[in-house]
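Help! Submission page says 'invalid entity' but I think these are all valid:
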Amino acid sequence: MQSSLVLQNLLSAPVLFFFLGILGVLVGSDLEIPSPLPKLFSLYLLLAIGFKGGMELAQSGLGPQVLLTIGAAVAMSLLVPLSSFLLLRLRLDGYNAAAIAASYGSISAVTFITAESFLNVLEVNFDGFMVAALALMESPAIVVGVVLAKITAPAEDREVSGEQENGNGGLRWREVLQEAFLNGSVYLLIGSLVIGYVVAAFSPAGLEKMDPFTEKLFYGALCFFLLDMGIVAAQRLRDLQKAGAFLIGFSLLAPPVHALAGLLVSVLLGLSQGNTLLFMVLCASASYIAVPAAMRMTVPQANPSLYISTALGLTFPFNVVIGIPLYMVLTRQFIPAG
Amino acid sequence: MQSSLVLQNLLSAPVLFFFLGILGVLVGSDLEIPSPLPKLFSLYLLLAIGFKGGMELAQSGLGPQVLLTIGAAVAMSLLVPLSSFLLLRLRLDGYNAAAIAASYGSISAVTFITAESFLNVLEVNFDGFMVAALALMESPAIVVGVVLAKITAPAEDREVSGEQENGNGGLRWREVLQEAFLNGSVYLLIGSLVIGYVVAAFSPAGLEKMDPFTEKLFYGALCFFLLDMGIVAAQRLRDLQKAGAFLIGFSLLAPPVHALAGLLVSVLLGLSQGNTLLFMVLCASASYIAVPAAMRMTVPQANPSLYISTALGLTFPFNVVIGIPLYMVLTRQFIPAG
Amino acid sequence: MQSSLVLQNLLSAPVLFFFLGILGVLVGSDLEIPSPLPKLFSLYLLLAIGFKGGMELAQSGLGPQVLLTIGAAVAMSLLVPLSSFLLLRLRLDGYNAAAIAASYGSISAVTFITAESFLNVLEVNFDGFMVAALALMESPAIVVGVVLAKITAPAEDREVSGEQENGNGGLRWREVLQEAFLNGSVYLLIGSLVIGYVVAAFSPAGLEKMDPFTEKLFYGALCFFLLDMGIVAAQRLRDLQKAGAFLIGFSLLAPPVHALAGLLVSVLLGLSQGNTLLFMVLCASASYIAVPAAMRMTVPQANPSLYISTALGLTFPFNVVIGIPLYMVLTRQFIPAG
Amino acid sequence: MKRIDLILSERELNRVCKAITKAGAKGYSVMRHVTGMSPSGEISEAMDFSGLGANAHVIVFVDDDLLGAVAAAVRPLLKRYGGVGFVSSAEPL
Amino acid sequence: MKRIDLILSERELNRVCKAITKAGAKGYSVMRHVTGMSPSGEISEAMDFSGLGANAHVIVFVDDDLLGAVAAAVRPLLKRYGGVGFVSSAEPL
Amino acid sequence: MKRIDLILSERELNRVCKAITKAGAKGYSVMRHVTGMSPSGEISEAMDFSGLGANAHVIVFVDDDLLGAVAAAVRPLLKRYGGVGFVSSAEPL
Ligand SMILES: Nc1ncnc2c1ncn2[C@@H]1O[C@H](COP(=O)(O)O)[C@@H](O)[C@H]1O
Ligand SMILES: Nc1ncnc2c1ncn2[C@@H]1O[C@H](COP(=O)(O)O)[C@@H](O)[C@H]1O
Ligand SMILES: Nc1ncnc2c1ncn2[C@@H]1O[C@H](COP(=O)(O)O)[C@@H](O)[C@H]1O
Ligand code: NA
Ligand code: NA
Ligand code: NA
């Protein structure tokens, strides 16, 4: 049964288009999706997933399990970067360790979406409030990362970076929070979630009219975007030689370990099979959009090619290709079917 | 009942996404929809609205009421800029008064589309020929604006601008007409209208195949575009300090006044509730696409930030958020339900 | 009956939008679809047509008629450039003759798609394996073109071009094959074909989810893209004065002649009416995407404006407007209805 | 040789390019979607959907003796519609 | 006059533009979506969807006496975040 | 220092960039989607969807002693595929 799930994932349209993108780079095709078209798809996916999540949240309501799950998700997004940092610090300087830890504490919306599509094909249910968990897990890790970088910074650096632009440390914090909570993707996701909630609650006639855009088109648009993600991930693979064996090992072992932690929490919370898989995927995935952008601004001393190439070049493909079905196998082992 | 209509509009998906865009700018999110993606949505909306309008025009035919309504629409697009000009001239020089008057005489397709969506949600019918009125109201105001600017130009200016590039004034007229009737958005709208008409009349099998693109997708695409319009409108708000209290007052009072004039005409023409709302919206809205582009070429002495920031930063949000439900309240007062 | 088919094609939405684009350029409208939006539509069309073709191929299987048809298609893509070259060599130097011949040996995916839409409206069936023929006809002509250019190159040129960048002739071949088989559009088309096949065979649940994207949206997206193709083709028309009467004649006579050759082969193979039309269109159309890009790299001595302006400015409009219905008339003459 | 840098609104681009050609320049290059700031305000890409668009940057490399003609052709357009122009020295590679 | 060419990551563009204005320059122009290479690696548009984006090219024409102020304002930003700056001579058209 | 401006078709961009690097330049910047005109015709963005694309503008700042090497590496490519190159003087900011 295990291998059949992996195979089923490998042979689904989104994953196949992801491979097509990777293969294109490997064989040297000049296929490219020119900027800003990928941005169109990423904005679309965030808007659609947020809207649908909010809509379902309005239907399920904000009961105790919902709030507990969301709380646990936020807690994981604080714990994962802390433990990752301790491990990464063994081999890396404080700046890079903090930036990479922040990536792994945060999440990848596309991995989450791919997991949702996987569940849809398997006809396993999941709840809209998991999107709220997704939205709230994006930002906290950024704050943790910045704090860790500050704490471990050599004394003289701390002086300089405090002085340089703001004259004091206070303004700096505004920037960190701005980057963490108001960057475009977090903002659009949360905004669409709220809109979906409000429309479902107050003008449900609008839901049906949104359906062709946010629901029907979704799967195809995901395929198109994963094609591009394949191209980009493959290009990132080249940077990995700079990363070294330690980081490569980290980026392939962190996902299953974090997924196991997520499974444990899900069992304790009594989540359904579908929600458990999504929770595991949230813990296992690493951010290559919001966090890198924030780290570049707030911890410029860290090397972007390290945190981007690991999160995008290894962890993302691992989760999309092997991780998701693997976590489903584990879910079925430990969680009774709904 | 009145307040419930306003609320219903405020809580609809398109208006909520519009607010999301405005809010993004106000709180300092870096959410942006990079160029040329907004152009994709504006081209799409024009194509879809034109096609659907033409299709329905073919079904309703070109009876006397249709022709009368269209004639009245064109007349309004000549009268509104003339009266606006007289008012604006009290405080502004001839060039700026002419350019702003032209904006308010012309129309905003997105406001019209939002009103259509509003009617759809209320399940109030309207006719396809209103799109023809929309299309024919875009251009005349441009010609009026240029004529007004010419007439009030100081004598020495007239000389120079006549000479400068063409050697004579004749060629200049070609340019004005070109800008008025052949600018991209007017051309695409009228072209799609004609195509919709022809397809409906001669190869109706094509209608059904166009439906997913022009009809199903429409509401979601409008939401996406209004998100961007919110961002752009909010950015324009900053320019308003240059405009001064007189212009700000004008941009908020002109819409309801012009809408009332439109209501009067609708009553005289015996239009249905749905058509009356659309007619009022056409009169009340101001152009921030075709007219500014034309004015920049033909009346370069006017200051673009004045006519764009009023039409886009104030009049557009006013109409979308408050105007449309307000005009609907008035419509229900004076027009018997179909 | 003949004229009614031509008229039916002329009055279909895709062809009308194509005319709208042409007319826009002729009357001087500033309507434009800014880059990279056209690329979005061309990538989308390739992905959708490939996916649908692969899906249908999985349903029909790879029987002898399928393999024979595909074999004949590849043979045509070798023969057409050879015969065209002999003719073109009468008036043109070897480089230009080879490059133009390669264009006409290869195919135009948009012409093929337009023909499919035409058949859909007529409710005439055709098979998914014709997309495989399309995919496999793109590349061989490129190789033929390069070989012809090499063979007819003056001795001293051959030396230089062999030396210049690679030090030897071997590497050069890699580049030719790379351009022929791995350029973006060929790669995406074949890749999507394979994916469609695999998904249909192994995870058919995914087919339905792709349907709104690849099937429903298709007709409208084709209209949008043909609007742009009209603009581009009209702009290319201006370059034609450089081409001269001989080339203009060639670009208008080659399509029907090649279509007749295709008809002959179809009769011999016993193809259905729908497949015959598509086969004729493949033979008749000329490439303005993959081949020009490849020729620019591998035969830089040829003048791009010659091969692009003929294929795009004349042959493409001819096929879309007159060719397709004309070939259908012939098909009905010689092929019994299914 | 001289290198001329012109920065102006995309709307007037066609006119300026025609003027450059008419003045005898053998070539030029255009970058669109240029944003910028000047005493008359900030130009962003935000209005791109309206076709009012952003700025364009035109580069023209000309022989010294053509500079006068190009300048004479372009100056009135910059004056009428706005935009700036600068000249520096350059040599063919 | 002087022509200043700055090439830096789009992420820091706002800061740099503010610094230029604060230093007293009357205008500048910005080209985005610039890619490039430097000793610290290659910058492509591939990550554009992430907002990490590519480089931007900023051109500032200033009077000679302002060069010092603009340089002083921009240099620390280039040093902190990366990016390069060059100066050449130019004259108004 | 020298500033080298190259304008050429996007298709050949990779080759030219490689040549520049191989010649020893430490960095360069690329602007794509450049349109233009030259004696051999007009280049618009109209063919962009085909990948045949428009022009690219490459800027390279190099020390004076590297100019020769870069010029030698780039010239044959410009000659073979088309494109132009110009050199001016510049100083680091
Ligand atoms: N000093 C300057 N340096 C660089 N670019 C400038 C300068 N002044 C103006 N510009 C550009 O030229 C455009 C038009 O200028 P203007 O017509 O003065 O508004 C501005 O939007 C800027 O992009
Ligand atoms: N010598 C150079 N010539 C032209 N552009 C350069 C040069 N060095 C760096 N750049 C550009 O400046 C960007 C940032 O440089 P850096 O901060 O050194 O990584 C690079 O990505 C290039 O686009
Ligand atoms: N004199 C010039 N000034 C600026 N750009 C030029 C000039 N000549 C050519 N170009 C640019 O270089 C490109 C290629 O030139 P060519 O290879 O001569 O066709 C043209 O399309 C223009 O964008
Ligand atoms: Na995570
Ligand atoms: Na109006
Ligand atoms: Na062919």
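Support: the input was valid. A stray whitespace character was the problem, and the output above is from the cleaned input. Residues 39-334 of chain C form a domain with the Na+/H+ antiporter like fold fold (CATH 1.20.1530).
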